[in-house]
Amino acid sequence: MKRPRKSFLIVFVPVLVIGAVALAVLYPKSLVRISDADNNGVAERVVFLTLTGDMKRIDEDLDQNGTVDRQELFEQGLSVLIKADQNMDGVQELTTYFTPQGEWSMLMRDQDADGRIDVVSFYDNGGMPPLGVIRDKDGDGVFEHSRPGSRE
Q1: Distance between CA atoms of 62 and 71, rounded to whole angstroms?
Q2: How far, in Å, CA of 91 to CA of 84, rounded?
Q3: Which phi and psi angles does 130 have, rounded to 5°?
């Protein structure tokens, strides 16, 4: 087995240490809340807080496989974005954007689980039906306009 060169170790080890120290400074333990409710060693929920104690981000592993299935981002304590893998296949199918008032502004979906957004819905004041919907009906990467509330 080939041994790593000393020059690599001289550079890599300090970078690794600096990265760990930076992470500890940016997110001290008091600013991270980890929940492992069933004590299996896999965190179901990790909450990142700002220095003022407001939520910054929540990562959730809903199916206990060690990957984030749902992530929610916050600004000034209010939810602004949710990303979700709804069928637990490892592909993010849903992204929801919120207004500063907490109402839906845009919803993006990957309906066929190919890793690409197929449907984008736009909302005004969180109201239903959506103001507009665009879809990539044939998978060519080009969105076609649909009428509000349309499911075609």
Answers
A1: 11
A2: 9
A3: -65, 155
- Whole-number Å distance between alpha carbons of 38 and 129: 40
Tell me whether residue 25 is exposed, middle or buried, using C-beta atoms within 10 angstroms of its C-beta: 0 to 12, 13 to 18, 19 or more: exposed
DSSP 40: S
Both tokens of residue 87? 């069928």
Strand partners, 48: 32, 57
Closest CA to 103 of 80, 86, 82, 85: 80
Peptide bond into 129 cis (omega under 30): yes
CA nearest to 137, candidates 105, 104, 112: 112
Per-residue model confidence (pLDDT) at position 70 = 94
Contacts 24+ apart (CB under 8 A), 62-71: 62/88, 63/88, 64/40, 66/42
Residue keyed to tokens 């939520």: 55
% of the chain residues with pLDDT over 90:
20
Structure pTM? 0.70
pLDDT in tens, 23-67: 555 555 568 888 888 888 888 899 999 888 889 999 999 888 888
